[in-house]
Design goal:
single chain; Glucose Oxidase, domain 1; 3 domains; alpha/beta; 6-phosphgluc_deHydtase; 14 strands; 609 residues
C-alpha cells in the first residue's frame, strides 16, 4: 500500500485543522438529529405517520409497522433534459428492488433540474447557479417528512448533484447513495462539432447546418458525452465513494445499468442504522472525501464549475477548503486523462479505456488519494479501483487492467502533464481559476491590452465588427453571483477560438463562469472579488479596468494583474439587474450571495455555514 504523498497529507491536515470547529458542530448536530429520528413510529404521531403511507399501496403495512427500512427517493426527473429523462422509470423499478430485500421505497420529493446546455447565452442562464440552492432546499423539503431510513438521490447534471449533496448533508444521519442514469451513446466526432460551431461564429455555416450538427451530437436520452460539469459530477461521486463502484459512465437502458441501480437499492437497505454496517452520509463525506473530489478534478481535467461547487458542499458538511488548497495539490497531482474538450474522445471512450476504475487505482497506487474513506459500496476506496460487469444477471466487479487507449488515459507514471488541470492565478485584479488541461502550454502566459465588456452580447458585436482582430485580453465583468447570478459564458468560446486560430494572442478574464466545456482559449474565470463587490460598497478590481489597460495573465507564474493605477479611478457603473424569465424572483439570492471561492451561495451564507 503506497504512502500518501506529503503534499496531499499537508493539505489534508490543514483543511482538517481549519475545519475543526465547523466539522465538530456539524457532526454533533447530525448525532442529535439522528437520535431524534431514530424510529419514525415513535418520532411521528400516528396521524402524521398515516398521512405518510396513505398512498403506499402494498407497501403501506410494512411502512406502518417498520417491518423493514424505508428508502426515500429524491428525484430530479424531467423529460426536457436528456440526462434526467431516464429517471421517469426509476421509482417503480426501485420499489420492486426494495421489496426483494424486505425494504420499501417512496418518492420523497422532486427537485428542479435545469440544463445549462439549453440556457447557454439565454436569459435563463442567470438562474443557473442559484438553482443549486433551490435544489438543496427542495431536497430538504422532501426529506423533512422524516419517513426514511436511507436516501436515493437521482440526479446527474451541473448544479443538480452539488445541490442534492448539500441538501442531503443536512440530513447526514441518513445513508445516501447517488444513482446516475449514464451518458447517451456517442454521436458525431467532437472535432467536427467544434469545427461547425466556429464556422457558424464566422458566418460560414448556416443556422440549419449548426442545428443539424448539434442534433447529431445530442441525440438521445442520457448525459451529454463531453467531459463537462455533469460528467465531472459523476467522477466526484466515484472519488467520494457515493456511487456503487463504477456506476458513473454506464449507458442508459443497458442490462448493467439496471443491475447497478438494483444493487444500489439493495445496498441502501443494508447500510441503515438498524443494520450492522451503518454508513451515514455525514461520515462518508468528511475532509478526506472532499480532498479526493478535488484530486479527481485535477487528475481528470474536470469542469471548472467544481472550483465553486466543492467549497459549497464542503461547507454543508462543516468543512472549509479553498482554491489555494486545490492549487497546491495541482502541483503534484498528474493529469491522467484527455477527454473532450481536453482531447478527442468522449466519456464513452474514456469508460471503455478503463474509466474511473483505472483513474482511482492509479491515484491510490501513487499515494495521491485517500484510500481510508467510508464508502457506500462497502470497505474503502479500493473497491472503486475496479470496473463493474454482468455475471449472468448480477453485477460483479473485476480488475480494470491497463489503459485501453494511451491517447486518452495514462498511468500516473506516464501522465499527460506532471501537474493537474487547474491553477490559481492572483494579483491586483483578484483571484481566479485557470484551467490548464485544455490549453497548450505556450498559451499559458498572455500579456496584452484589454477590451472591457459588461456582457456576452457586447463581445459578439465587437467580434463581428472586427474590433478584436488583434492581440487582446477580453474582460467580461459584472457576471458574478451578486451581479447577475454568475452565468456561464460558454458562447464566448467559438469567437475567441476563431481569433486564436487567426494567430492572435487572446485570453479571457471574467468574474463569470465558463464550465467544463471551456476549451483551448486561456481564461481566468470566477475572478474574486467580483466587479460588483459586496454590500458594503467595496467594488472588485475589474470594475476599475478601462479599454487599453495592459493585463497579464499567466498560469506559469500564477499572475492576474494590470500595470494600470486602479486607485485613481472611479468604478464603472454596473448594469441594472435584468428582469423577465423569473430573474426578479432571484433578487434575494443575488443580494446575499458570497464570493465564488466560498461557493457563490446565498443559502449557505444566510445560514451561517
Amino acid at each position: 500500500m503506497s504512502k500518501l504523498h506529503p503534499v496531499i497529507e499537508r493539505v489534508t491536515d490543514r483543511v482538517i485543522e481549519r475545519s475543526r470547529p465547523g466539522r465538530r458542530a456539524y457532526l454533533e448536530l447530525m448525532e442529535i438529529e439522528g437520535e431524534r429520528h431514530r424510529d419514525r413510529n415513535t418520532a411521528l404521531p400516528c396521524s402524521n405517520l398515516a398521512h405518510g403511507f396513505a398512498a403506499a399501496g402494498e407497501d403501506a403495512e410494512s411502512i406502518a409497522t417498520r417491518r423493514g427500512p424505508n428508502i426515500g427517493i429524491i428525484s430530479a426527473y424531467n423529460d426536457t433534459i436528456s440526462a434526467h429523462q431516464p429517471y421517469g422509470a426509476y421509482p417503480p423499478q426501485m420499489k420492486i428492488y426494495a421489496r426483494e430485500v424486505g425494504a420499501t421505497a417512496q418518492v420523497a420529493g422532486a427537485t428542479p433540474a435545469m440544463c445549462d446546455g439549453v440556457t447557454q447565452g439565454a436569459d435563463g442562464m442567470e438562474l443557473s447557479l442559484f438553482s443549486r440552492d433551490v435544489i438543496a432546499l427542495a431536497a430538504s423539503v422532501g426529506l423533512s417528512h422524516a419517513m426514511y431510513d436511507s436516501v436515493a438521490m437521482l440526479g446527474i447534471c451541473d448544479k443538480i448533484v452539488p445541490g442534492l449533496l448539500i441538501g442531503g448533508l443536512r440530513y447526514g444521519w441518513l445513508p445516501t447513495i447517488f444513482i446516475p442514469s449514464g451518458p447517451m451513446p456517442s454521436g458525431i466526432a467532437n472535432k467536427e462539432k467544434q469545427k461547425v460551431r466556429q464556422l457558424y461564429a464566422e458566418g460560414k455555416a448556416t443556422r440549419a447546418e449548426l442545428l443539424e450538427s448539434e442534433s447529431k451530437s445530442y441525440h438521445s436520452p442520457g448525459t451529454c458525452t463531453f467531459y463537462g460539469t455533469a460528467n465531472s459530477n459523476q467522477m466526484m461521486m466515484e472519488m467520494m465513494g457515493l456511487h456503487m463502484p463504477g456506476a458513473a459512465f454506464v449507458t442508459p437502458d443497458s442490462g448493467l445499468r439496471k443491475q447497478l441501480t438494483r444493487a444500489a437499492v439493495h445496498r441502501l437497505a443494508a447500510i441503515t442504522r438498524d443494520g450492522d454496517d451503518y454508513r451515514p452520509l455525514a461520515h462518508c463525506v468528511d475532509e478526506k472525501a472532499i480532498i479526493n473530489a478535488a484530486i479527481g478534478l485535477l487528475a481528470t481535467g474536470g469542469s471548472t464549475n467544481h472550483a465553486i461547487h466543492i467549497p459549497a458542499f464542503a461547507r454543508a458538511a462543516g468543512v472549509q477548503i479553498d482554491w489555494g488548497d486545490i492549487a497546491e495539490m495541482s502541483k503534484v497531482v498528474p493529469l491522467l486523462c484527455r477527454v473532450y474538450p481536453n482531447g478527442s474522445g468522449d466519456v464513452n471512450h474514456f469508460h471503455a479505456a478503463g474509466g474511473m476504475g483505472f483513474v482511482i487505482r492509479e491515484l491510490l497506487d501513487a499515494g495521491l488519494a485517500h484510500r481510508d474513506i467510508m464508502t457506500v459500496g462497502g470497505g474503502d476506496l479500493s473497491a472503486y479501483a475496479q470496473e463493474p460487469w454482468l455475471d449472468g444477471e448480477k453485477v460483479a466487479w473485476r480488475d480494470v487492467g491497463p489503459s485501453g487507449d494511451a491517447e486518452m488515459l495514462r498511468p500516473a507514471s506516464e501522465p499527460f502533464q506532471s501537474e493537474g488541470g487547474m491553477r490559481l492565478v492572483e494579483g491586483n485584479l483578484g483571484r481566479a481559476c485557470f484551467k490548464t488541461s485544455a490549453v497548450q502550454p505556450e498559451r499559458w502566459t498572455i500579456e496584452a491590452p484589454c477590451r472591457v465588456f459588461d456582457d456576452q452580447a457586447q463581445v459578439a458585436k465587437a467580434f463581428a465588427a472586427g474590433e478584436l482582430d488583434k492581440d487582446v485580453i477580453v474582460v467580461v465583468r459584472f457576471q458574478g453571483p451578486r451581479a447577475n447570478g454568475m452565468p456561464e459564458l460558454h458562447k464566448l468560446t467559438p469567437p475567441l477560438g476563431v481569433l486564436q486560430d487567426r494567430g492572435y494572442k487572446v485570453a479571457l478574464v471574467t468574474d463569470g463562469r465558463m464550465s467544463g466545456a471551456s476549451g483551448k482559449v486561456p481564461a481566468a474565470i470566477h475572478v474574486s472579488p467580483e466587479a460588483l463587490g459586496d454590500s458594503g460598497g467595496n467594488w472588485g478590481p475589474l470594475a476599475y479596468l478601462r479599454d487599453g489597460d495592459i493585463v497579464r495573465l499567466s498560469a506559469e507564474d500564477g499572475t492576474l494583474s494590470t500595470t494600470a493605477d486602479l486607485s485613481s479611478r472611479q468604478p464603472a457603473a454596473a448594469p441594472k439587474p435584468a428582469q423577465g424569465m423569473g430573474r426578479e424572483l432571484f433578487g434575494m439570492f443575488r443580494a446575499n450571495a458570497d464570493e465564488a471561492e466560498k461557493g457563490g451561495s446565498a443559502m449557505l451564507a444566510m445560514a451561517g455555514l
